[in-house]
Structure formats: C-alpha cells, structure tokens
Design goal:
Elements (H helix, E strand, L loop, with lengths): L2 H13 L1 H9 L10 H4 L4 H8 L6 E9 L8 E10 L4 E6 L5 E4 L3 E4 L2 H19 L5 E6 H10 L3 E5 L3 E5 L4 E5 L2 E5 L1 H9 L6 H20 L2 H4 L2 H8 L3 E3 L3 H10 L8 E5 L2 E6 L2 E6 L1 H10 L9 H5 L1 E6 L6 H11 L3 E7 L9 E4 L5 H11 L3 E4 L8 E5 L6
Parallel strand pairs: 1-6, 3-12, 15-16, 15-19, 17-18
Antiparallel strand pairs: 1-2, 2-3, 4-5, 6-11, 7-10, 8-9, 13-14, 17-19
Helix pairs in contact: 2-8, 6-7, 6-10, 7-8
C-alpha cells in the first residue's frame, strides 16, 4: 500500500471509529487499504443494491466468534447486527450459545451446535427458523484473530469486576483474572469476554462483552491507536471470513461514520435458564423476543425501555443456595437492571414478595410476579437502593 492511500485510510477510519468497533473489531474490516483509491467514490446505488433489496431499510449481519481454540469449532459468540440504513441506527441482538432451538434435520439442541454441524449456512437456516429473519451477510472471527487484534491496539484498559477462575485441561483453556482495574492483553481479554462460570452465566458474559467493546471504543479514540487502524485492518484479513465485498464494507463505514454509541442498542434474547434431561439450556421467551424485533426501531423508541431503567434487588429469603442469582438471571434476560443479589433478614419466608419501593411502579411489580409465576406483589414508598425488592420464599420454583 502506498503512503497516500494509507493516510486516507487512517483519516477515514479515524472519523468512523464507532463503526470500526462494530465492523472492524468484530471482524468485518477485510481488505484494509486494498483498492482503497477505487473505493473512495463507489457507485453508491450499485453498492447499496448489492447489500439489500432496494425496498428494504434494514441489513441483517450475522457475527460469529468461533471457539477453534478448543478444537470444537462451535459458535461461541452469536450476534445478529441489524443496520437501519435510513435511520442510521444499529441493533445488536446477542443470542446465548445455550439457547434451545430446533436445528433443521438435527432436532432440538443448543444453537451453537449448528455451526459445528453444518457451518455458517446451517446456522443461518437455524436463525431464520428461530426468529424469522433472513441473514443478508455474515462475518466469522477466530479467537486467535481476536487475541492478535487486541494486542495490536496495545491492549484494553477496564475494571474486572470479580476474580475469574476456570480450568479446562482437556481443551487447554484457562481463565485466571483478578478483580480490579487493569490493562488486558489479547489473551486476558479473551478470558474476560469468554468467562461464564458464575451464577450469572451467559447473561453476565454478554454484559461483559458489551463492556469490553465500550472499552475498545475508548482505546480507539486515542490518536496513537488511530494511526494503527490500517495495520489492524490488514491483520484482520488473516482471521476473518465473510461474504462482504470491500466496496460494501466501505459503503457501510461511510454511511455510519458519524453514529454515536447511544444510537447502538443492545438486546439479548429474553428467556430463562433451565435443565432438560440433565442438560442446561437458555429457554427463549418467543413472544417477548418478537416484540423486541418488531418494536426496536419504531419511532426511535426501543421496546422495554421502561423495564431497562428499573433497578431490582433480589434477596434470598428461603435459604436455597443460588436461588437469588438464578432469579436475577431470569430478570436480566427480560431487561431489568439488577443492582444487588444478597440475603434477606431471615430464611423463613413462605411466600415470595415483590415490593415496589417507589409507590409508583406497582404495575412493574405485578409484571415481575407474572414473569416468575409465583409470589405476591405490593407497593409502599420507602428508601431503598432499588425500585423493586424481591424476597424469595419457600414457594420459589426453579
């Protein structure tokens, strides 16, 4: 690549650093500066038509993180990224890898098995049946590439919220992170975004992935890192597989280069964890999911926005180990923000209580009671760190 084109790549990617997180770090930037001169002024109508149907405003992109580090080649991270081409907004739908779905010709199992069974085509077909949306394009990123890209930008600074430990001697994969603010290199960053061996499971894992991407954004805003973006793009070629063309990539970058983080909305497939025949699954709430998909781009209002601002504390009032964490995971799947998990003042509550502490959100307390399928709700105005307090009783069903 000649110096002139490299400088234009630097300037272009610097202006588009928010989208670079979505497109480059998540695997989409292939081609780097290759043919960059010819892509500066592409035929916009032709490129757009090659992306989506002319009447369609949305572009659905499937992003898959592959755990070939463990030799299984399963889809360890699955995200469906929807670009609103007219409204200049982005929706990221995270799909827990243990989500129970029907894989064509394979039956009911975890969605991450689809890639191992039949590659990207079978995963796309499974998603089409699961959520009723066609995938327009795909990107896969090998975790070796993830490690390399993080190292190339000099690591990422963030606060690790807890000690994280995990050993898989058979796969040769280990997680050993200490709580506290620190710089994570590529290997440590991979450990952080993959950790899920705590009561939060996939919900906590997805939240950490979002937190990590925000930390990447902060790093990319630094001038010394912006200068490395062309090299980062070129390095990504080695680890990324996609059906995007370079023209389409630069068209998207130009279209979304001024997007801000508040125009990127994150959702997770709502549902709850459960065991079926001794196997742990994430059981999706399809009615709730359909509302997310139908409403998330309407009138600039995102479904469940009220719930997403509600703070909840879950207290163990029955003495069942792990019960509060299990309920918290369920409610986080529905969009509620858990601010505390702990013990109640005693362990002999017979009936679960869902309490509105504001005196104004009794409808939310009732809705949470309906989600749980047990307990009673009430409303009383009192000082509390949470809008809603849940005290679990002996009637709790797991």
């Amino acid at each position: 690549m000649v110096l002139g084109s490299k400088m234009m790549v630097v300037r272009f990617l610097g202006e588009s650093k928010v989208m670079f997180i979505i497109l480059a770090i998540m695997g989409i930037v292939i081609g780097g500066g290759i043919r960059f001169y010819s892509l500066l002024n592409p035929d916009v109508d032709v490129v757009r038509a090659s992306l989506v149907n002319e009447k369609d405003e949305f572009l659905n992109v499937l992003f898959v993180g592959i755990d070939s580090v463990e030799g299984s080649h399963r889809a360890d991270v699955i995200m469906l990224i929807t670009f609103d081409l007219k409204g200049k907004r982005v929706r990221v739908l995270s799909i827990p890898r243990d989500t129970r779905v029907r894989i064509p010709n394979r039956g009911w199992t975890k969605i991450n098995h689809a890639y191992a069974y039949g590659g990207i085509d079978l995963l796309k077909e499974t998603l089409r049946e699961f959520i009723g949306l066609d995938v327009d394009h795909y990107i896969t990123l090998d975790y070796k590439g993830f490690v390399r890209l993080v190292d190339l930008i000099g690591g990422v600074e963030l606060y690790v919220e807890k000690n994280m430990r995990y050993k898989d001697k058979w796969a040769g994969f280990y997680i050993n992170l200490n709580k506290g603010y620190q710089k994570l290199d590529g290997e440590k960053a991979l450990q952080y975004v993959r950790f899920r061996n705590d009561p939060e499971g996939d919900i906590g894992r997805i939240r950490r992935q979002k937190k990590f991407l925000e930390a990447v954004f902060n790093k990319l805003s630094k001038e010394e890192v912006v200068k490395k973006l062309p090299s980062l793009a070129l390095e990504a070629i080695k680890f990324v597989k996609t059906d995007f063309t370079p023209e389409q990539i630069f068209y998207l970058l130009s279209l979304f280069k001024n997007i801000s983080l508040n125009q990127i909305k994150w959702f997770m497939v709502p549902g709850k964890p459960d065991l079926i025949d001794g196997v742990s699954y994430w059981l999706p709430d399809l009615d709730r999911l359909n509302l997310v998909l139908k409403s998330s781009f309407k009138e600039d209002r995102f479904v469940f926005e009220d719930e997403r601002t509600i703070t909840v504390e879950v207290l163990n009032g029955n003495g069942v180990y792990g019960g509060a964490a299990s309920v918290a995971r369920i409610l986080e799947g529905y969009g509620y923000r858990i601010v505390r998990i702990g013990n109640a003042d005693r362990f002999d509550y017979s009936i679960t209580r869902v309490i509105d502490n504001t005196g104004e959100k009794v409808a939310i307390a009732r809705k949470i009671t309906e989600i749980l399928g047990y307990g009673v709700f009430s409303s009383e105005r009192k000082e509390s760190q949470a809008d809603i307090t849940i005290i679990l009783g002996k009637d709790m069903r797991r």
